Amino acid sequence: MTNEQIAQDLVAKFGEDKIYGIMENYGLLNVTTSVDTIVPLLHYLYQHPTFKFQFLTDLAGIHFPDAVGQELGVIYHLHSLENNVRLIIKLYVPIESPKVPTITGLYATANWMEREAFDFYGIIFEGHPNLIRILNVEDMDYHPMRKEYPMEDATRQDKIDALFGR
């Protein structure tokens, strides 16, 4: 089973308008899909008699503030343990409507990963059984990993730039 075979199978099943951005990075197949395709795509990959992508290694949020209409995204890392093949699936949503369907019904491990992406990026996983903050305080009114917030507190007085090579 090669990356090319997987890509061709996915395009044949879902179409070029639903599976695009196909590329290979460091031997890992990367594909991009849409919000309405992600759940059927993941079910297909999970139940496929050959592929058997039945392990969700990771799920992460991303923020690209300059990508108008696609500012927020979710990256899914899947692993076929039987075939020892990995797959990365990406999807993007506008920051005004950061809604993505949950995949907790297929992968129970997605529960906390989706909560983390919600907590840090504000991505709303529709249908999630308990979408509340997981690492930050409940009353926090922003999502700290978005790039609109600085990484350091500019008002700190205890850091001398010369000591940090700046």
What is shown here, in short?
This is NADH-quinone oxidoreductase subunit C. This protein has 166 residues and is of the alpha/beta class.
What would your notes on this structure say?
It is a single chain. With 166 residues, the protein is of the alpha/beta class. The chain has one domain (3-146): NADH:ubiquinone oxidoreductase Nqo5 subunit (Beta Polymerase, domain 2, 2-Layer Sandwich), CATH 3.30.460.80. Helices cover 22% and strands 27% of the residues. It contains 3 helices and 7 strands; from the N terminus they run αββαββββαβ. It has helices at residues 3-14, 35-47, 110-121; strands at residues 20-25, 28-33, 55-63, 72-80, 85-93, 99-101, 124-126. Helix 3 links the parallel strand 6 and strand 7 (124-126). The longest helix has 13 residues, at 35-47. The model has no long low-confidence stretch (mean pLDDT 92).
Percentage of β-strand residues: 25-35%
The first-level CATH class name: Alpha Beta
Q: Major sheet: order of its strands? A: 1-2-5-4-3
As for the CATH topology, it is: Beta Polymerase, domain 2
Count of alpha and pi helical runs = 3
Which bin fits the share of residues in helices?
Answer: 10-25%
Secondary-structure class:
alpha/beta
Tell me, rounded to a whole number, the average pLDDT: 92
Number of domains: 1
Ranges where pLDDT stays below 50 over 5 or more residues in a row are: none
Radius of gyration, taken over Cα atoms and rounded to an integer in Å: 18 Å
Please trace the helix and strand order, writing H or E for each element: HEEHEEEEHE
Ends distance:
49 Å
Categorize the overall geometry.
globular
Oligomeric state, counting identical vs distinct chains:
single chain
Please identify which CATH superfamily we are dealing with: NADH:ubiquinone oxidoreductase Nqo5 subunit
What's the total number of strands?
A: 7
Named CATH architecture: 2-Layer Sandwich
* Main sheet makeup: 5 strands, mixed
